[in-house]
Amino acid sequence: MAGEYVATVTVNRSGRILSADKMFCRMFGFKPGECKWHYICDCVGGVESWAHIRDNLITGDIRAHSRNRRAFRCSIAPAIEMIEGKQAYTCKFTKKQKH
């Protein structure tokens, strides 16, 4: 959709990042390939926030922040999938562009 950034990340149950697209890296301040094995909770407000999103498959607006601690509002849409027989979560983050 025009006027939005859409980023995708896949994480395991504990919140470790397994893979992320270039837009996720850009949105959250990682260099391409650098974010693997970092924790998603560092981007979505802490361990409690990730556990709440994961356990309830919360979809909606959240307050996220980049590695340099710059906060921004975005929406998250998590989905469960199986990767190599283990449960993982693919999350789409959508951030509106500033005009």
What does this structure look like?
- The protein has 99 residues and is an alpha+beta fold.
- The chain has one domain (4-96): PAS domain (Beta-Lactamase), CATH 3.30.450.
- The chain is built from two helices and five strands, in the order E-E-H-H-E-E-E.
- The chain has helices at residues 22-28, 47-56, and strands spanning 4-12, 17-20, 60-65, 71-83, 86-96.
- A five-stranded antiparallel β-sheet has the order 2-1-5-4-3.
- Strand 3 (60-65) and strand 4 (71-83) form a beta hairpin.
- The longest helix is centred in the middle third of the chain and has 10 residues, at 47-56.
- It starts with a strand and ends with a strand.
- The mean pLDDT is 85.
Fill in the keyword field for this structure:
single chain, 99 residues, alpha+beta, Beta-Lactamase, five-stranded antiparallel β-sheet, 2 helices, 17% helix, 43% strand
Major β-sheet strand ordering: 2-1-5-4-3
CATH class reads Alpha Beta
* Structural domains: how many: 1
* Helix share, percent: 10-25%
**What count of helical segments does DSSP give?**
2
Strand content: 35-45%
Assigned CATH superfamily: PAS domain
Give the strand tally. Answer: 5
Largest sheet geometry: 5 strands, antiparallel
Ends distance: 15 Å
CATH fold naming: Beta-Lactamase
- Evaluate the radius of gyration: 13 Å
CATH architecture: 2-Layer Sandwich
